[in-house]
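Quick one, tokens below. Sequence please?
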């Protein structure tokens, strides 16, 4: 049978990395769960348990990323986790040298869900010791596979938006709101966020008024 790229190839020659895969003798259906929540979380964890013992997990993951495989668990990451990792790299949020560490984090066992963890995942801390309930926390965690640092904000301008692609936490916003941030969005082939668009427009206006994109201070600004 010819290999189609949809499941691990158990007929590969001994020199192929697949011959060393820990899943070689496992039921392939284990690595293609039909859901991502509820009882399927147990199936996903069982598959990841196999992947965590696999000597070629990183190679398997790289294969899935290179071939853009749309479904299944490869290298210990689900399709959603792989998509989130690729998106993070393309947007400059994750450096290439950090991909291995990020993938290792995604392979780790899921934290046991309790009322307290559900509460923590759905709240963010405010000034003065207050807490705010926010669905953006959940959307961010589901998409990135990690807890956000600082408040989760939408960069599309819609105050009610919870689309993960429009959400950022504090580290991801580090370059946003600047002209360089605008250029970075464009270089990545993505739509610039509202703060970056404003920063770029402000810089253009300063260039027309003063001959420089830099903000003037002191006497120069007054003049």
């Amino acid at each position: 049978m010819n290999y189609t790229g949809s499941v691990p190839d158990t007929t590969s020659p001994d020199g192929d990395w697949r011959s060393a895969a820990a899943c070689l003798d496992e039921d392939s259906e284990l690595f293609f769960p039909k859901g991502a929540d509820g009882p399927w979380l147990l199936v996903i964890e069982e598959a990841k348990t196999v992947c965590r013992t696999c000597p070629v997990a990183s190679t398997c993951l790289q294969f899935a990323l290179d071939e853009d495989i749309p479904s299944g668990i490869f290298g210990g990451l689900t399709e959603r986790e792989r998509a989130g990792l690729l998106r993070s790299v393309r947007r400059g949020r994750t450096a290439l040298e950090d991909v291995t560490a990020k993938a290792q984090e995604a392979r780790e066992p899921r934290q046991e869900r309790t009322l307290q963890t559900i509460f923590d995942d759905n709240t963010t801390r405010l000034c003065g010791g207050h807490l705010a309930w926010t669905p953006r926390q959940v959307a961010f965690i589901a998409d990135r596979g990690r807890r956000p640092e600082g408040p989760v904000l939408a960069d599309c301008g819609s105050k009610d938006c919870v689309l993960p692609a429009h959400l950022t936490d504090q580290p991801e916003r580090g370059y946003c709101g600047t002209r360089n941030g605008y250029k970075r969005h464009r270089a990545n082939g993505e739509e610039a966020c509202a703060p970056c668009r404003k920063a770029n427009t402000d810089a253009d206006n300063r260039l027309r008024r003063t001959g420089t994109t830099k903000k003037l201070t002191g006497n120069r600004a007054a003049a």
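Residues 194-210 form the longest helix (17 residues). The CA atoms of residues 38 and 220 lie 62 Å apart.
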